[in-house]
């Protein structure tokens, strides 16, 4: 979780808790109505926290997917480059082998 998102969620939770506390202190309603308001406040808070969490989760999945795709592309480029280098090495070795065969043939005469 990024620090910015974590701080945002913490700020929302702290603000909601302070709001609920002040609401209880200054509530002119009966206890049952106050409890209902507290419940609604917590439900709202829970909804906001879930929304933030879902957004954070989606953002994380998106970033992971991009990183995964970039890694896959890098590996494919590396393999392609390695394959090209391997072909160069094989060609070089074949040429050297042909030269050695010619030299060996001269020595065998």
From TrEMBL:
Indicate the segments annotated as coiled coil, or none if absent: 61-103
Asked if the Swiss-Prot or TrEMBL record annotates the protein with the keyword Lyase, the reply is no
Keywords recorded for this protein, A-Z: Coiled coil, Membrane, Transmembrane, Transmembrane helix
Locate the transmembrane regions by residue number: 6-27
Q: What highest taxon heads this organism's lineage?
A: Bacteria
What's the protein called, per UniProt? YtxH domain-containing protein
Q: Which organism is it from?
A: Flavobacterium cheonanense
